[in-house]
Amino acid sequence: MEDFFDLYRKDRWPTIFCPGCGVGTVMNCFYRAFSELDIDQDRVVFVSGVGCSSRIPGYIRADSIHTTHGRALAVATGLSLSNPDLKVIVFTGDGDLGAIGGNHFIHSSRRNADMTVFCINNNIYGMTGGQASTTTPHRAFSTTTPYGNMEFPFDLAELAVTAGANYVARWTVRNVKELIGSMRKALVKNGFSFVEVASPCPTGFGRRNKMGDPKQMYEWLKIKSVRKEKSEFWNMDPVDLNISGQITIGEFVDRNRPSLGSMLKSMMNNE
Amino acid sequence: MRLEAGTYFMQGNEACVEGAIAAGLRFFAGYPITPSTEIAERLAERLPEEGGIFIQMEDEIASISAVIGSSWVGAKAMTATSGPGFSLMQENIGYAAMTETPLVIVNVMRGGPSTGLPTMPSQGDVMQAKYGSHGDYEIIALAPATVQDMFDLTIKAFNFSEIYRVPAIILSDAEVGHMRGKFTVPKKSEVLERRMRTDKVWHDGFAYDESLVPRFPVFGRGFRVHVTGISHDIAGYPRTDPEVHEELVRRLSEKIIGNRDKISLTDIYNEDSDRFIVTYGSPTLAAMEVIGNDPSIGLLQLKTLWPMPEESIRHVAKNVKEILVVEMNMGQVFKEVQRIACLEGCENVRLLSKVGGEVHTPQEIVHSLRRC
Predict the structure, then answer these.
(1) Residue A139 belongs to domain with CATH number
(2) Chain A partners of B227 at a C-beta cutoff of 8 Å?
(3) Residue B348, number of CB atoms within 10 A of its CB
(4) Is A43 on the interface with B (CB under 8 A)?
(5) Under an 8 A CB cutoff, do B61 and A71 touch?
(6) Rounded to whole angstroms, how far apart are CA atoms B9 and A70?
(7) What is the architecture, at CATH level 2, of domain B6-185?
(8) How far A260 CA sits from the closest chain B CA (Å)?
(9) Distance CA B236, CA B243 (A)
(10) Chain B residues in contact with A76 (beta carbon < 8 A)
(11) Which residues pair with A169 in a beta bridge?
(12) Chain B: nearest CA to A83, how far in angstroms?
């Protein structure tokens, strides 16, 4: 793949994403990772739910299905089981995956269903204009938490590790090199692989938390993110719950448990 | 092994499974719920024998989602449930209608609303099957009355679903699902396949011809099609233009309504009678007994519920003094029959309703007929 627009649909440009959004960076990183691998673009299906990040498959020049809110992983399960030769790649966000699709996230990880999931976590519902999500930091402001978020956020990466995923990593959009590397690893992994990307939403999240300028949001991600190796918190509190706290980044698990597809295949072959 | 031609004795739910396998079922995703569970249990055993996939999902929403995914790689796919699960599936039924995804849903109806009467039959989901999801759309719904119907209509449901690219719903009920009876597997059943796209283009994945049904661009063969529940043009791209939305929504309905005659399955008995029973599903058996004892009474059995077989109802309504609609709900098909019969000037349409979880007895029907 020579060109960015071999992967993306040029006829759909420009995208709907706001200035300062992290999705463009993730799309670029994905292009880098995908183009370095020898994957036949006609043997890949892109799946998403609803939200900003879920619009990515609509821009990809491949078979793609933009499903209902939260259901991407369940649709992907049916896809990959019915045609195990296809590579199934999901783009999702913190609202789509952590809230409305939370149950499917847990069980797809548990089943080790054959798919690669990229979650762009911007700590907010961007598409609907900035409501609190399951990863909005404690005490952060949003249109539905005008007095600060009284709840505590999910750690999506830790959830995937605990539930049984084969590969789990988390980076911010600032860690471009590491992100591309993890995306590449996730794409060739059998079973359930999961990469979470902490990403800025200056429009929906930043403006209400004194970070309306994209530069401030990138600065925030820089200050917040701590590598797993340097973190005292990992295994204790991988995502610090407060807005000023830390996000632990790195590769959290890389294992080879048998995938759902391979288990069903061995059952059918009476192994 | 598919069932060989011959006569079998089985439960309705089991006959449904055999019908699905005869129709070429390749994928089932489901979640346990009374009174449909036997369908999942039998398929868990039978589908791997046929080289198909069975998976038990985390809920009914996941089940229909997985079925949608499976259908897009070209598999004939199905799920089975009952009222509460059917309610959970509604959003994705609309999605499947919007994205023209062929799939079959078996709803073995039980008493509602809510948890209701889990082990007892009702016909309370007739309107939900048609109107349960938001927006204007059409689906196809069939109502089996016997174990034989469970086999035959399951095959029909797959055929309709594949040909028209639409969710087809089997509105069975706890009585038919759990009834044990004899049924015959014919030497050859008519099995239809969806029309596939064969040319390799990716800019008009939803282009359609005079049939109004786009050829299916199955995933994984280089069509590079985009599928979305958002209003979309023939490329499959999201569009918000009023004319694009109107063209799409009207076509989704027209491709079904325009074929109403081909989809309408009905049986008429004692055609010359001037008093008619109109019914469907398990009350049909009681109605059969009534007309068996009194040939002056006619019977119209609706095997298709959606789209409503208007022609058959009008045909019956033309020359009758009275129509009695028998159903296990508070009058869902009744209002449709009333509306349609009225077009033929037949105003004497009455309802024999029952919602207690028991099927009508022949005596109740006879008694109700005497009152007129």
Answers:
(1) 3.40.50.970
(2) 64-66
(3) 14
(4) yes
(5) yes
(6) 42
(7) 3-Layer(aba) Sandwich (3.40)
(8) 10
(9) 15
(10) 69
(11) A195, A251
(12) 7
Total domains in the fold of chain A: 1
Tell me which residue range forms the domain holding A69: 4-268
Single out the residue of A196, A197, A224, A195 nearest to residue A211, CA to CA: A224
For A103, which residue in chain B has the nearest alpha carbon? B58
Fold that domain B266-370 belongs to in CATH: Rossmann fold (3.40.50)
Domain with CATH 3.40.50.970 in chain B: 6-185
Q: How far apart are CA B202 and CA B236, in angstroms?
A: 9
Nearest CA in chain B to A77: B66
A68 and B77 within 8 Å at the Cβ level: the answer is no
Contacts of B238 in chain A (CB under 8 A): 58, 66
| B287 inside 8 A of chain A by CB | no
Contact predicate A209/A243, CB 8 Å: yes
Tell me where in chain B the CATH 3.40.50.920 domain(s) lie: 266-370
- Give pLDDT tens digits along chain A (271 positions): 779 999 999 999 999 999 999 999 999 999 999 999 999 999 999 999 999 999 999 999 999 999 999 999 999 999 999 999 999 999 999 999 999 999 999 999 999 999 999 999 999 999 999 999 999 999 999 999 999 999 999 999 999 999 999 999 999 999 999 999 999 999 999 999 999 999 999 999 999 999 999 999 999 999 999 998 887 655 555 566 677 778 899 999 999 999 999 999 999 988 6
**Residue whose tokens read 């929403």:** B61
Enumerate the residues of chain A whose CB falls inside 8 A of the CB of residue B63. Answer: 74
Sign, CA dihedral A6-A8-A14-A18, equals negative
Would the CB atoms of A75 and B220 count as touching at under 8 Å? Answer: no
